[in-house]
């Protein structure tokens, strides 16, 4: 199941027939819509009966996942004369690379919800269409959304009804936070880089990647950013000077985003036996940490996530250093009682992907990104169009604000 809150649309029974509803789309007004939107979110979080589900607590802030973008909006769909909120959708607009250091204005659509009682009325499509018009007015040339490739209703809505095309497929890697600490080699030194230096290094490292944000400095200086860290062989410590561009032959770098201050996750619907087994592994790990058992965090209560981004490695020891760096972040999360997992999202051809520790049972290989050209579709697609150009880099930069 995807951590992305994308379009989760489920069909009504074919036997149910209702009149075409009167639906009006408006911008979100906190005083008028907040309570209704929170109620709608809870209605849409109910998973399939008898099966585990991952629910999201927005902690009383319906726009928390787009708040950190300068350009953002949330639209609501009101139904009937009483203005019942039956749908909601969010979007942010940012400037990113599309490869080869070429920047373009892009909209990211997320958080599409439609009330279970009002699905199959075209409300989702109407929300997307209104949102696209808003994005065009803000200068966005493209719009994209992300969802689990197995979420057929979401994929079908965007690709079959709204004109989006399947564009990129990423892998989401999830590492639980154990009760024990991860061992870090005594031969590895971890440096904490200041935001300005980290931004300068990222501008060089990710110039040819896709989706690299132009406002990286704002991200790195945001209060949710816990820091940028570099792992190097300790023997190079005295000769390493990142400020002057002097780096060792091998190194690894990443940044950490604290999503637990934005939203919380919780697993519901597991069997009592599965719950007991998970709790048991945690207790054993706490009582006997020297065994370093692969324990489960307490995901049955609300928990937060650390999101890793800006992952890059160089040299023969790059993979080993990246694993040490992930272990360092794990230990940071271990000391933070509210963090239950560490997550990274990477392109399927990204060489860093194989170096990031994760549990396959918690991770998923196909987070589908679908994209649409918002410019006049009647015009012939130019040679420079994003769809026809091939990126010179296997790296896709995932903005932590998108997660």
TrEMBL record:
The entry's keywords: Transferase
Xref: PROSITE patterns: GNAT
Every N-acetyltransferase domain range: 23-194
One Pfam family, short name: Acetyltransf_1
GO terms of molecular function: acyltransferase activity, transferring groups other than amino-acyl groups
Origin: domain of life: Eukaryota
InterPro entries the record matches: Acyl_CoA_acyltransferase, GNAT_dom, Plant_NAT
Name of the protein described by the UniProt record: Putative N-acetyltransferase HLS1
Source organism of the structure: Glycine soja (Wild soybean)
